[in-house]
Design a protein that fits this description.
This protein is α+β, with helices and mostly antiparallel strands and 316 residues long. The chain is built from seven helices and twelve strands.
Length: 316
């Protein structure tokens, strides 16, 4: 590393050389006055280095540039050759020196963007060099805030809505029903089953099945184009043996079941009549069939309306 140089003109500047990229910078001596080893930052290669000012005083100064070296030579020659210098010559010489010094200051003044004086502080570590610089400018913070605000507002509104629907599930159900009017929903109070019966029978193929029949009454003011039923069989200890969920809008109640196979019965039970419509005040007969499971152990049964789908256009 080359040592720092001094300005030949009245010691007004010191010349600092970056040990990494060998770039030289001029620094006013008054900025480091009274300090022994100030630190400097080279923005060209982002290197922080320090300079021992005691070495500055002991080393032989070098000319800052060729213009200043020529100025000193010309001035010394004039003083040696001119025994009696007139006042006009002295005034011209003084003006020439001031002009050269002004040119020196303009050409070799350090660029504020290239060199920053850090004072007599310790050399920062890896993170230290970033602490003195703002992470984001004011405009960047404003842009970031503008981008985050809509997302934060949406999340806040979503949190409020989730809390509201959690404590009031009926409100969420009402909104879903408005968005999807034909969505399956629990049966209303005016829709119920009456006159149920159960019987065992054998198919022509010899398999035993259990049939549950009944009638659905619609005493509401709404029409329905599908009604799902849930039926269960229990043993004598009321443990569940089998369960089926099937549509009441099938043709099983109007079919000769004994001539069918178990697979055909299950297929009919899953198929809904497209033209099915239970109007207000109307009744509908249904039949459900259990074709497998531990039917011989069945002692009890239950049946209920599992869900309904309102008609999109009601015919009253």
């Amino acid at each position: 590393m080359m040592g720092p140089d001094t300005d030949p003109i009245s010691q007004r500047k010191i010349i600092v050389e970056c040990p990494s990229c060998q770039t030289r910078f001029g620094v006013k001596s008054e900025l480091v006055q009274g300090q022994r080893m100030p630190h400097f930052h080279c923005s060209k290669c982002d290197t922080v280095f320090k300079v021992d000012l005691t070495m500055l005083r002991s080393q032989q100064p070098l000319p800052f540039n060729s213009n200043m070296g020529q100025l000193n030579v010309v001035a010394n020659n004039i003083r040696k050759k001119a025994g009696n210098i007139t006042s006009s010559n002295l005034h011209n010489l003084h003006r020439n020196e001031e002009k050269e010094e002004a040119n020196y200051k303009e050409e070799d003044a350090p660029d504020k963007n290239q060199l920053s004086f850090l004072g007599d502080t310790k050399k920062p570590g890896f993170w230290g060099k970033f602490l003195g610089k703002p992470l984001l400018s004011d405009n960047s913070w404003h842009d970031l805030f503008t981008a985050i605000m809509p997302v934060a507002a949406f999340l806040f509104a979503l949190m409020l809505a989730s809390g509201y629907f959690f404590f009031k599930p009926s409100a969420a159900e009402g909104i879903l029903q408005r968005l999807h009017p034909q969505m399956y929903r629990p049966a209303p109070a005016g829709l119920y089953i009456k006159e149920t019966s159960v019987k065992r029978t054998n198919l022509d193929s010899g398999e035993e099945i259990i049939l549950i029949s009944g009638e659905i009454v619609n005493s509401t003011s709404s029409s329905f184009n599908d009604i799902m039923l849930q039926a269960r069989l229990y043993d004598k200890n009321e443990d569940t043996l089998d369960e089926i969920i099937a549509t009441a809008a099938s043709t099983l109640s109007n079919t000769t079941i004994q001539s069918l196979s178990p697979e055909m019965i299950r297929g009919i039970q899953r198929s809904r009549l497209r033209s099915f419509l239970l109007k207000p005040g109307a009744n509908h007969r249904f039949t459900l069939a259990f074709t497998d499971g531990l039917l011989h152990r069945a002692q009890l049964y239950s049946i209920r309306i599992y869900s309904v789908r309102p008609a999109l256009v009601e015919n009253r």
